[in-house]
Structures are given as structure tokens and as C-alpha cells.
Amino acid sequence: MTGPTGLVCVVGSLNDDTTLNVATLPAPGETTLTEGRRLASPGGKGANQAAAAAVLGAQVAMVGAIGDDEPGERSLAALRELGVDLAAVARRTEVGTGLAVITVDAAGENTIVVDAGANDSLSAQEAREAVAAAEPAVLLLQLEVPQDAVTAAARAATGAVVVLNPAPMPADPGPVRDVLPLVDVLVPNRSELGRLAGRPEPTDAGEVTACVAALDHAGSVVVTLGADGALCFE
């Protein structure tokens, strides 16, 4: 999987996405009807990162795991069409490809429920060996695969720019905080930033700045703010 300088390596999830459009997101206990047709498509935070980088012209290698099933094959086919190197995507026979159900309201806000499936089987050894072999210039990470695989990948990425989208944030953010010194670019939303900083979710630029200052992280931070854009800290 070794490539020329400039290789982008993604260690992360491959999911089968089902997207449902609604007027408003349902409240707890509420049943809401969809508007329009449901959309089934390949997804997963990792696969989406790989696809986006490939569309932008980067040479991309994907590291992850799928089930031995039709959704997994669809995921591979979509990435293969974009020229993504799939040599380090493992196929599991004992568990299915990950599944995500995405609900999107009229304003574009969304909720996502994920069944990790095969994503949860990616081992630290697999991640470490794949990243070491790839020798990437950039390593893209998220948290839809086990934390130990994420940490192992970051440690193996000698000389690479390591980018972490800390989602979905686990109930205990401690292991995520532990990997921050290995990360060059952190890309959280407001909720994730607050959790990592051990503070309430920030509601304005001043609170965002205070949360960023509280992190044990010397690299860049890009805080996504939904419809309000993003704040960048160097």
C-alpha cells in the first residue's frame, strides 16, 4: 500500500447509510413521518473522508473493516470507483457491515444512530501495521472504530499530519484526551469540544476560545458550528 509523498490514509468506518428526511427532528417518544423517499447509500465517517479526499484529487488509502455482505460490497465499489486503495479493508464473516440511520430536518440539522458492526472489529494491530506500511503524508481519523485502533494509528503515523474528528464522542472522553498530543489538527463540534475540555458546551466565541485553551493540545483546532460556520485556532 506504499505510495508516493502526498498519500492520505484514512483509518475509520465504512457504513451502509439510510437517510430519512423529516420536517422537524422527533422529540423523545414522538413518532414522525418522513418527507420524500428514503435514501440508501454507502457512508461512514471514515469512508466519507476517503471519498472527499479522492474527489479533491488526493491519492487515498482506506483502512477499516466490512462484513461479507452486499452493503459492504457497495461501500467498496463506491470507493473503488474513486480510485481509493482498499488493500487494508478487512472483510469479516462473523459480523455485518456497519449501519447508520440518519434523520435530517428541513433546516439541515440531523441526528445519527450507528450500529458499528464490522467497524468495531478493527484491531490496533491492523491499524498500526496498515499505517506503518502506507507511510502517509496525512492521516485522517474519527471515532467510529475502536479507540485503541485510533491511538495505534496515530502513533504509527511518523511524520504525517494527523487530523482527528472526535466523533462520536464516547461516554468517557478520557482516552480521546490521551491521544490529543499525537494530533496536529483537531476538528470537533461545540458539544465534542466541551466534553474534551471538561466544560459545558460553549455557546459563543468567547466560550469556544476558553474551551480550546483548556485542551492538552498544541496543534490547530477547527471548531465546526453548524449553520454558523467554523472557528479556527492555530
TrEMBL record:
Alphabetized Pfam families for the sequence: PfkB (PF00294)
Molecular function per GO: ribokinase activity
Source organism of the structure: uncultured Nocardioidaceae bacterium
Enzyme Commission designation: 2.7.1.15
Protein name (record): Ribokinase
Record-annotated Carbohydrate kinase PfkB domain positions: 7-234
InterPro entries assigned: PfkB_dom, Ribo/fructo_kinase, Ribokinase-like
TM region positions: none
One of the record's GO cellular component terms: cytosol
